[in-house]
Design goal:
The chain has 323 residues and is an alpha/beta fold. Helices cover 43% and strands 14% of the residues. The protein has 12 helices and 10 strands. It has an 8-stranded parallel beta barrel, surrounded by 5 helices. Helix 11 crosses helix 12. It is globular and about 75 Å long. It starts with 14 loop residues before the first strand and ends in a 14-residue tail after the last helix.
């Protein structure tokens, strides 16, 4: 079923802060942190006995909290548990207008996304909410989910992001390490490269965002920056953060540098001028010692878009060449 509303796949998600849905103190503190996205967690961060009450705590904080400037997400439990349908019904009926997305963990096939889409649609119609406004984030956490990631990415118009869940994934493939996010001993290359690229290709094939998972050594900010830098270099849009100290690092790593942002804006201006009547209607031109063309423009659009979303302001201006 295709929702009437197309979700916003371009929300800033440089930093996606995980907050236990059962912890009012953390839920209060999260509202004042500069994270792009906050997800209130009903899954791993909540003990089984705490989940029923946590649903109502999450509804209360979504409705009464000040989440200004943040994407508001709730991670429900996965479909193999008996908690999922009640998570969705309680949270969406209770706080649907103040919710942007639901995150579905441990997604293994497209049918699990379709099922969540249909349940959301029924709730929205029953409650009189705008149909399709609430997006879905799909978390890939095991081998089967990665093998089926293309179908998952195409499963619903509500889908906004594909998220890598490293801890469960490492366990599912018997990876030889206990440190989430670090390389396994004995392997001389990046053991996560194929996984990250596979997720990124599926996401980009369907105009979705790709989000890297958490780095559990929460006090090692330098280690976080290094790991985040790998996925940022590939083209990922952001990364989970588990501690306030990781938020600013994520925002910085997944934003262009001032130099790169200025350069991208100059490329756009120079190309626009070169292809204009005044600029000689040329298909390519020189910007200093660099030749730029339509492909350069496309690359510059990505960097300029991320820079603008991050609030960067230009420090240079384009001057047409003389003569």
């Amino acid at each position: 079923m295709s929702p009437a509303h197309q979700p916003d796949r371009l929300r800033p998600r440089r930093s996606c802060l995980a907050v236990p849905g059962s912890n009012p103190r953390f839920l209060e503190k999260a509202q004042g942190l500069p994270a792009d996205q906050v997800f209130l967690d009903l899954e791993d961060a909540c003990a089984p006995l705490a989940k029923p009450d946590a649903r109502h705590t999450v509804v209360k904080f979504l409705n009464e909290g000040d989440w200004s400037g943040k994407t508001r997400v709730v991670r429900v439990n996965d479909w193999t548990t008996h908690w999922t349908y009640r998570d969705v019904v309680t949270v969406v009926e209770g706080a649907g207008p103040n919710l942007d997305c639901l995150m579905l963990p441990k997604v293994q096939d497209a049918g699990q996304i379709t099922a969540l889409d249909m349940l959301l649609t029924q709730i929205e119609k029953t409650m009189g909410f705008e149909v399709g406004r609430i997006g879905i984030e799909a978390q890939i956490e095991n081998a089967k989910g990665l093998v089926n990631v293309d179908g998952i990415a195409a499963a619903s118009p509500r889908l906004e992001t594909i998220v890598f869940g490293p801890a469960d994934f490492m366990a599912s493939i018997n990876m030889k390490t206990l440190v989430v996010g670090e390389q396994p001993p004995g392997y001389p290359a990046d053991a996560y490269h194929y996984i990250l690229m596979r997720i990124l290709m599926a996401a980009r094939s369907h105009d979705l965002q790709a989000i890297d998972g958490p780095y559990l050594q929460i006090r090692d900010v330098d280690g976080f920056r290094e790991v985040a830098g790998r996925s940022a270099a590939l083209g990922f849009d952001g990364k989970w953060v588990l501690h306030p100290g990781q938020v600013e690092a994520a925002n910085e790593v997944f934003s262009p540098s001032q130099e790169d942002y200025d350069h991208a804006e100059l490329i756009l201006d120079a190309y626009e001028y070169a292809t204009s009547e005044e600029g000689g209607r040329k298909g390519s031109a020189m910007l200093g010692d660099e030749m730029i063309d339509e492909a350069s423009r496309k690359m510059a659009l990505v960097v300029s878009g991320k820079g603008r979303a991050a609030g960067l302001v230009r420090t240079t201006a384009f001057t047409p060449p003389e003569g």
